[in-house]
User: Fold ABC transporter permease from Ruminococcus turbiniformis.
Amino acid sequence: MEFIQEVTSLYAERGSWFLELIGAHIALSLTAIVCAGVIGLLLGIWISIHRKAAGSVLTAANILYTIPSISLLGMLIPFLGIGNPTAVVALTLYGIMPMVRNTYAGITGVSPEVISAAEGMGSTQAQIMLKIRLPLAMGVITAGIRNMVVMTISTAAIASFIGAGGLGVAIYRGITIYDTAMTFSGSLLIAVIAILSDFLLGIVERRIKKRLHLG
Assistant:
């Protein structure tokens, strides 16, 4: 109970500082999410068209995904230095994997009968991709986005160790000065943002799947 009071007091006394960290954390995460989303989507579309390259691309993305976050940040520092740019690159590389995988799975999972019917009606491959494959794959793609968003928000906490902003600053500072309340406060806010994002994206995902089912 005493610890909870300590955390509550910390939020009350340093509210503006925590709000600033929340803003920086969201900005950092959102930048990486947009970059990973666009790159992963385009790459997923590309390998769904060029199937022979799918294995190599997915393997490379999987290798990047399995590298520990702190190790990846350390490997990027000699090339990009410290700060937000390095963190954005690292988070983007992590986020590409779920986007590529789900985009590829969603597109290739579209029923061949549907594609054959569209081709029989004279649709071009571009029209089939934009009007049939992608819309029908959106449920799977949204699940990839959901996974990527939560992972990016959580992993962004590590970015403070290389001088980037965000709520990881509170965690890092709490560790260095042995302030468990500050460490907990930063961790709790990250968890809340991740859970809220997952909840909202879950609603979007369910609505998309319901619409596809009804369609």
Q: What stands out?
A: The radius of gyration is 21 Å. Residues 15-49 form the longest helix (35 residues). The chain has a mean pLDDT of 92. The domain at 2-214 is CATH 1.10.3720.10 (MetI-like fold).
